[in-house]
Design a protein that fits this description.
Chain lengths: ~325, ~250
């Protein structure tokens, strides 16, 4: 089943197109990483999908509900953690959780039980009686996660959930997200690649309002893996690196710091040709080969490559 | 109006926790206490001002005290209503708390109406207490008073104050800045007060309710059209506020 579906979803602010004909399907029970640089259209997409912004054209469905004005069924089935969750500072964490439970129509006993359960999950039970005004940024973020889960949402939207957190706070929130995948589909917008690598099973890359690609993280790695070679020599390979730059089927050749010595990193424009001919070039260089490897690029490299090619690969 | 109950509960809690009840009640009570006191001892104050002055002040009447108090509440109440209500929606939009609340199954209409209802309760309770104190103090210091007319006068003041709150809630929903909401509300309320003294058109202005209330003690004509218009405008303000919120991008 599909957790989220969009058809030609477009949002324009005057002459600026924030989101351009987004066609997307997110399956159930995955953590979908919506990845893009700042200003790519991630928050606009979250706003459109949660009904806080109206599309210029196109439609979207979340948890089987058409997103539109006054559809409270959508709110009953979804949870939202905004990029900077804001609370009433005069309320305590526990009071806020009960308030949210009441809005979801939970009976008093059930509401109390659910509030305590979620406060425990986000490790805020000890601070639950304190005013939210005195909470740290990380505590607010965790309370934000807890309030979004009160109604057992089928789809949970998280807009940049870790962007303002310190490393410990980030680790806690990511661990929490990993624990939630059994019960909900999570749509997580972010520009932090390592977060996506750690928790997302499917990733969509967006830039300048356009969806460039959708794939599993493994699928992306496989697709982009075979284009990068790492080579180590005993001798200095600077001259050889320069000579490779003139080869038409090589797009990049540079020396990068390795374990102790420098290593040569070669990106092939034509992978099959490189696999056949690069070993011959190495042999004819007269250098002593220590290591030759087709490397799995990290997500950052894939991301940069997709952005620079406009998703055209 | 789904979500009205929890929203109203939260708004009432907010009125109490952020001391709005204390502030509004305190301001109203101050005038409830000081108006009869000032009127009673005004001749003494004038005497103390100097022996050279020859000003004769007639003895104060109970009706004078009650009308004076209601007039002050009518004027100061407008200002307090605008100050209390100007950020009620705008601040929530600006801070992002509206997004958290409205991502739950609660309608915009319930969100706005709960705010107006809670603030109205604060003002009505404050008005009731301060008016009761003013009446008691007037009877004690000055003499017997027409309680029935005073009650009617207070009901008219209450309707007018709820109207002021509704206007401010509307502008608070239209603007993201509470200052813009407050400034526009004050401008509009002052404009209608100016119009309410004009012949013919003035008889249909919400501000006429205060003049009508003051005249109750001498039994002049009533202004029911102004009353009906005030109620209708208040309802329209709430409707327009929730429409504005529906149309707003958050």
């Amino acid at each position: 089943m599909t957790a989220i579906k969009t058809e030609g979803l477009t949002k324009k602010y005057g002459a600026v197109t924030a989101l351009d004909h987004l066609d997307l399907e997110v399956p159930d029970n995955v953590v979908f990483g919506f990845l893009g640089p700042n200003g790519a259209g991630k928050t606009t997409t979250v706003r459109l999908l949660t009904g806080f912004s109206r599309p210029t054209s196109g439609s979207c469905w979340v948890a089987g509900e058409k997103v539109g004005e006054g559809n409270l069924g959508l709110q009953a089935k979804t949870g939202l953690l905004p990029d900077v969750p804001s609370f009433y500072p005069w309320m305590s964490g526990r009071e806020f959780m009960r308030y949210v439970g009441e809005l979801h129509g939970l009976r008093p006993q059930e509401n109390d039980r659910r509030a305590e359960e979620l406060l425990e999950l986000v490790e805020l039970r000890k601070a639950a009686g304190r005013r939210i005004g005195g909470y740290s940024r990380g505590m607010r973020q965790r309370l934000g996660v807890a309030q979004a889960l009160v109604n057992h949402p089928k789809v949970l939207f998280m807009d940049e959930p870790t962007s303002a957190l310190d490393p410990i706070g980030r680790r806690e929130i990511l661990a929490l997200i990993q624990r939630l995948t059994e019960s909900a589909s999570i749509f997580m917008s972010t520009h932090i690649l390592s977060d996506v690598e750690r928790v997302c099973s499917v990733v969509g890359i967006v830039d300048k309002g356009k969806l460039l690609t959708v794939s599993t993280v493994e699928g992306l790695r496989e697709k982009y893996a075979r284009s990068v070679f790492e080579i180590e020599f005993i001798e200095d390979a600077a001259q050889f690196a320069d000579s490779l730059k003139k080869v038409p089927w090589i797009s990049e050749s540079k020396l990068v710091p390795g374990n102790g010595d420098q290593k040569l990193r070669v990106r092939a424009a034509e992978v099959e040709k490189a696999r056949k001919e690069l070993p011959q070039l190495i042999a004819s260089s007269g250098l002593t080969l220590c290591r030759y490897e087709l490397v799995m690029p990290d997500l950052e490299e894939i991301f940069m490559e997709i952005l620079s090619s406009g998703g055209g690969r | 109006m789904k979500g009205f109950g929890p929203l109203l509960k939260k708004e009432i809690m907010e009125q109490l926790r952020t001391y709005r009840v204390v502030v509004v009640g305190g301001v109203f009570l101050l005038f409830g206490l000081t108006t009869p006191l000032l009127l009673k001892y005004l001749p003494e104050f004038i005497k103390l001002a100097g022996e050279q002055m020859q000003i004769t002040v007639p003895p104060p009447t109970a009706a004078q005290s009650l009308v004076e108090y209601s007039g002050t509440i009518g004027q100061i109440g407008v200002l307090v209503a605008v100050l209390v209500a100007m950020g009620c929606v705008a601040n929530e939009l600006q801070r992002g708390t509206a997004v958290i609340t409205l991502s739950k199954p609660a309608t915009r209409a319930a969100f706005v109406t709960a705010k107006l209802a809670a603030m109205s309760l604060t003002f009505l309770a404050s008005l009731a207490v301060s008016s009761a104190v003013c009446l008691g103090y007037t009877v004690w210091l000055i003499g017997p008073a027409d309680a029935q007319s005073f009650l009617a006068l207070n009901l008219l003041v209450a309707v007018f104050l709820v109207f002021c709150l509704a206007v401010t809630v509307l502008f608070s929903s239209l603007f993201r800045s509470s200052l813009a909401a407050g400034g526009t509300s004050i401008g509009l309320l002052v404009a209608q007060a100016g119009l309410s003294v004009l012949p013919f058109i003035g008889d249909y202005m919400p501000g006429k309710l205060l003049g009508w209330g003051n005249a109750l003690f001498v039994g002049t004509k009533s202004y029911w059209p102004a009353f009906a218009i005030t109620v209708i405008l208040s309802v329209l303000c709430v409707y327009a506020a929730q429409r504005a919120l529906k149309n707003k991008e958050m």
